[in-house]
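Course exercise 7: structure representation. Students receive a sequence record and must write out the corresponding structure in token form. The form below is the worked example handed out in class, using MerR family transcriptional regulator (111 residues). Read each field label carefully; the graders check that inputs and outputs are placed in the correct fields and that the protein name is recorded exactly as given.

STUDENT ID: A-19
EXERCISE PROTEIN: MerR family transcriptional regulator
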Amino acid sequence: MIFIVQQKESYIDRKVISIGVVRELTGLSDRQIRYYEERKLVFPERSKGGNRKYSFSDVKALVEIADKIEDGVQTHEIRQEKLKEKRKIEQEKMRKKMLQGQINAQFGLRN
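STUDENT ANSWER:
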């Protein structure tokens, strides 16, 4: 019998880190971090008090973004690259979902 396990959000993707900690981890200024948010390169959540909350994935992305900017890559190019990556991931998820549906249909299983 085949079971689909729904995964919980990984600790890496939980938005729990304040901008001050992100600043310390990345070496970026608050202004740089906010700028990358304005350019739609990172998407922090907001607490009830309006404070930005980042994930470890966001921290990694910010470091990668800063490195690319330092190498002369423009923010719009980075955003286009991120959109391509996101589309690829979504296509892969859809492919897996379709394959799982085919397997379930073949063996008479239901989700």
